[in-house]
Amino acid sequence: MPTLENKLVVALSSRALFNFEEENRVFEAGDPTAYMRLQLERLDAPAQPGIAFSLIRKLLAFNDAGAERVEVVILSRNDPVSGMRVFRSAKHAGIHLERGVFTQGRSPFRYLRPLRAHLFLSANAEDVGEALAAGFPAARVLTESVLAGTNYPHEVRIAFDGDAVLFSDEAERVFQSEGLEAFQRHELSKATQPLPGGPFKPLLAALHRLQHDGNAAMRIRTALVTARSAPAHERAIRTLMDWKIQVDEAMFLGGLDKGEFLREFEPDFFFDDQTRHVTHAAQHVPAGHVTSGIANRH
Fold first, then answer.
1. How many distinct helices (H) and strands (E) make up the chain?
2. What is d(CA 82, CA 41) in angstroms, rounded to the nearest whole number?
3. Is 161 a catalytic residue?
4. What is the pTM of this model?
5. 64, 79, 127, 161: which is the annotated catalytic residue?
6. Among 7, 36, 151, 236, which is most exposed with the fewest C-beta within 10 angstroms?
7. Host domain of residue 288
């Protein structure tokens, strides 16, 4: 019987995987019938890669004849007719898709639970917020991001912010309410006390397992890219040590813009909760906004 057990499961919308921005403008104009007709007219015209395309293609390369380690599922507000174009575009691009859920305008986030998804990527902020509230790692794809580079074809490269992404927003709350000096004192006093996990801890753990159980042809390289600086760096490092999870690179930037550092790291995707950081990063790399934590509560 088919099963998703022991797989890394990534669910994503059609706009995250492919560039459907022109078609989406028709949809947002309030004419779903015209949108459906346009997708049907373009059924045999393969869509161009979207912002998450490189990430998905590389993750699927962990599958081989011996084991299916990664499952990618389209989870979309699209109608089933438009879904046909998604599957045809995937086949044309060499992206192996077998499963998809198309909800014709309704929020699809509830299907993350039976999928046991480790990640949900969507251009729809509402769906992402609901997924995060339900306990799933999720990010709003910035469709204006630049596409991933091609210098590392055999490495999945993923960069994460720390507070409110990998870690809880406990320390970020201190910074927001009391300022930088209070934040530094708070973190120095708790340097040996691990931070609680944030929304993306389960994804980092799943990637860690995939790295150790995967095939030799593909590798995962992760980076922690945080606005923290010394002495607040120590608690972040000790937290990862307590989780028994390693990251390959760590950048403690003390509030500097992250974009140019990310451009040098060349990730297939970057996750951050701060609008300023993720917007700047999108000028250099594929980026997603994790709409969690105190910074995103209005």
1. 13, 10
2. 10
3. yes
4. 0.94
5. 161
6. 151
7. 155-296
